[in-house]
Design a protein that fits this description.
By secondary structure, the chain is of the alpha/beta class. It contains 10 helices and 5 strands, in the order H-H-H-H-E-H-E-H-H-E-H-E-H-E-H. The protein has 2 domains: 44 residues; 169 residues, Rossmann fold, CATH 3.40.50.300. The protein is 52% helix and 11% strand. InterPro entries: DNAC/IstB-like, IstB, IstB_ATP-bd, P-loop_NTPase.
Length: 262
């Protein structure tokens, strides 16, 4: 069994559980197979999450919908099924600093990993540096091929600056290689309607927009309050509740004073 990489089943046979002894052989075998399958599934998920290098430890289930934003829960829940990956569609998320765009992008990446898809997260400034390093080390083609084969590529912080002609061509190459083949999430403060201003060559700008925007879901987050501020307030509130409960518990455990205590 170990040679077949069925380690959980091998351990269950070598270390039998007394609670399972009264079950039939078929029932015990079924339990062993299920535990082996769950162990392999969890191990694969951990590998996918590790390789994804998500910028935030974000989950769809933890998104706070009480904040005044122009996005609803149904939209996020629909995207969390990862149907857009199967259909090879993209997502554009824009919003001010603290609006939660990076969190949502990483939460979708987490969902994709749980659905068994390969995911990779990059901040665009760091990705462009990685591409330059790949060029200088003569591994550019291999690196770009790796990007092409990722089922969900998350590119965060688009538009922090205007791009050079070389950087624009690299972004176009990524867009072109993934067009109608894989899904990409692009997140940044700059709305997609202003992306033309980021690229020095109008032809390249048109090509990027044409290959990316027309088959994308657009999520424009417009929050009156920073998500970071909301999460900070929530943390403080939770801490206060914990402290209050702890203080109350201490009071309950305190002995009742008697006359001899005075």
């Amino acid at each position: 069994l170990k040679d077949l990489k069925l380690k959980v089943m091998a351990r269950m046979i070598s270390e039998p559980d007394a609670a399972l002894q009264d079950l039939s052989f078929e029932e015990r075998l079924g339990i062993m197979v299920e535990k082996e399958w769950l162990a392999k599934k969890n191990a694969r998920l951990q590998r996918l999450l590790h390789r994804a290098s998500l910028g935030l430890n974000a989950c769809i289930e933890d998104i706070d919908y009480t904040v005044d934003r122009t996005i609803d829960k149904k939209t996020i829940q629909a995207l969390s099924t990862c149907f857009f990956i199967e259909q090879k569609l993209n997502i554009v998320i824009s919003g001010k600093t603290g609006s939660g765009k990076s969190y949502i992008a990483c939460a979708l990446g987490n969902c994709a990993c749980r659905h068994g898809y390969t995911v990779k997260y990059f901040r665009i400034p760091e990705l462009l540096l990685e591409i330059q390093a790949a060029k200088s080390e003569n591994r550019y083609a291999r690196f770009m091929n790796q990007l092409q084969n990722i089922k969900l590529l998350i590119l965060d912080d688009i538009g922090l600056k205007a791009y050079t002609l070389e950087e624009s061509r690299d972004i176009l190459e990524i867009t072109e290689s993934r067009y109608n083949k894989s899904s990409t999430v692009l997140s940044g403060q700059v709305p997609h309607t202003q992306w033309y201003d980021l690229f020095p060559d109008p032809t390249i700008a048109d090509a990027i927009m044409d290959r990316f925007i027309h088959n994308s879901y657009i999520l424009a987050l417009d929050s009156k309050k920073s998500m970071r501020a909301v999460m900070a307030e929530k943390t403080i509130k939770d801490m206060k509740i914990t402290i209050d409960i702890g203080t109350y518990s201490e009071r309950k455990r305190s002995p009742i004073p008697t006359e001899t205590d005075h």
